[in-house]
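In response to reviewer comment 3 from the previous cycle, which asked for concrete evidence that the modeling workflow produces usable outputs, we include below a single protein chain processed end to end. The sequence was submitted unchanged, and the resulting structure tokens are shown without manual editing.
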Amino acid sequence: MMATKATRSEGKLCGLCNTLINEYQYRAHVAKCGVSSGDDNDNKAETVLKVCGLCERQVKDLADHYRTCTGVTTTTNRNHEYQQKSRNTPIYEHPSVSVSNASKAKECIICSEMIAENVYANHVDRCISNSSIRSKQLTKTKECVICSEMIAENIYANHVNRCTSYLSMRSKNLKGTKECIICSKMIPEDDHAHHINKCLAQSSMKQTKQKTTKECIICFQEIAESDYAAHVDACISRSSSSTKPKPISRKSEVSCFTCSSPVSSSKTSSHTVPCRSHHIYCLKCLENSMNEYIQPNTAPVCHSTLCDYEFSRYDVACIPLEADTIKRLSNCVKITRRPQCPICSFYIDFNTMDDFQKHVASCNLENFIPCEYCHCPYNVHRLNDHSQQCRSAPRSQQLQALIDFILPRTKYLATAQQIRVFIAHRKKTRAAIEPHAIIDALAELDGAFPFDIPTLDCGICMETCIYDDIFVFGCEENHKLCYVCFENSCASKMNNNETLTCGMCNYQLQEGEIKQLRVPADRKRQYLDYQIQKTFSAYVGGSQGIIRCPNGSCKWVAEASNPNDRFQVKCPMCGYEFCSLCNRQYHFRTTCQQIPEITERWFFWCDTERGRYWQARAQQDAQFRTQLDDYERQKAANIQRNQELAERYNELLADEQYKSANCRLCPHCQRVVQHLGGCDLMVCGQNYHGGDEQSGCGKGFRFSQALPYVSATNGGPQQVSNHVPEPEQQKLVVHHDIQCDTCHDQVQGIRFDCVHCASLIFCEKCEQRSTLEHSNEIRNQKKQQHVFQLITQSLNQNDS
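The workflow returned the following structure tokens.
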């Protein structure tokens, strides 16, 4: 049974005659069978490929191939089990020889197979001839002109055709695409920006993953980031603890970099400088070297000629010398490199080594979370309160908070403008805007700043300053001063009782320019009040009139080119809008004298006359019943508006009565003036001998010769009702070319014009609902209620 099983498993199928042949007779059979087949069918063999039974390759001349075939399969796995067996069992092994017997088998020096000793020499000869044939076959290749691959000559033409067709198809597919600058892939234009962001994020993640170790700042060893904090703590504790010096062993002996004498690597007898080469000095040579820098007060370096590593204050503090020597040597340090805290990874300023160790001992960032607005880390218990305040702050203030946080924590000293420019560049490149990322990026620059910062020279001190530290005045020459000279100029002029002007010309400073001063808020308010007072005094002393804001808490004043003109004034300081002549709420298309009468008529119309008018209209024509019903429904909504109008009317009535009894009109500008005592001589806008300055034309007159003020109010609704004729007595009035702003129809009947709006007109049908909505809108803006003028006759042109 064993022999039968072996015979079946070792049989092979001839590729020429399809006969199952014993494995040990297979080569002789194939050689003989292949010769006869090749002689009879020469023409057929040239065109038909046959499969080799040993290596399963497709060949034309199978007989010649079998003579040189090694039986190595390259293209198929059909007989995988047999192939594994054939590799472990020598092809030419005699049945009586066992390969497993190590004493009767040898390893082939060509193919490394175990071969029986009796067939070893023949096997090696065949391996050598096969390797030479293969090397010749490999040389019969050509490089593709499209893809640059090495291709066999017999399939070269077909391969080039396939490459050409693929290249043409790819060029068609690449239309509408752009090449990624990160990974060089062709990306559709619609997804190009998103792909770039994704590539940048992946590249930054790869960079962070690559940084798995950090150099210890104490012992300069490469430590895994996860163990870095614990390792530095242990190093600091070892360096600060006072231990007895250990005996020097020969293994730890090194030579001094200066005198070459053997020294111990312990800190009690030598010191290692944290330069790139980590030079070691004995304490005597180190002290002598440091004294050479103390006397001329030059910056200390590792070696005066061989190593230019410059010592920082932290490096000096680590040197095991006397305290007085360390103190004097620290004064010679010129470089501004700070040491890095192993806990928070920020760079720390310190005066003594104890200060740095205290910071490391107390540093803890576990409960700190960065703010999502300014990116500064805050304690988790304070983060909520800070975020609420930071959310409403302007972006410039958020950016300034980040700059103020980074400034004292960089490795090298940097200016606020440099950090501002660096952050702006990171925003353009979409890099992380986070304190640690910014500080690490600046540390990699080794104190050199890679961007140019534009500068200007101050016109007074001639110092070169960055753009943000230069103020440009609004004068014709656009003089430029640094903020220090700007503030010094203002302080000098105020001390000399002069009007605040440009530091280099007589250009008078405006309010907005004074607000740009970089001084405390109370000092800035002092400059503003002083400038207003000086401006007002200059106007009062002149011949022209002035205009002053009627708001009692405001001190704004301006010069009037023509004090008799009426125009709208908006105070630039408090925002109050008023008429230049009467100081009341500004009114369009009406004179100052008409406002009291118009206000009185509007109040009585809203209070009583509207209801009476629509009742009479409805009795005359049933189609006006709708307006009457609408009036009845909105009575409750009109109550608040009528109360506000009543308060305004009562104040107006009292004011008119007081002016009728005590005031007169200026004969030059028709402003209302009052005589408070003294002689009969008056100056419009101020007391005759100065003081109590108000809006006025500034011209003089005698109070007894001025015309008395006459009130335009009547004092009751009975007189006002006479102005609106009864509906049955009035004809249909059509206001040509005038449209209602609500229904957009031509206005018929009574026309309602808002005197406090540039253009707002309603017809009598839309008046009640539209004026009520307008009143609510004005109330929400916290302004005084507007007044509407009732026009019952068609006008050829409006009053201006």
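The longest helix spans residues 635-662. We consider this sufficient to address the reviewer's concern, and the full set will be provided in the supplementary archive.
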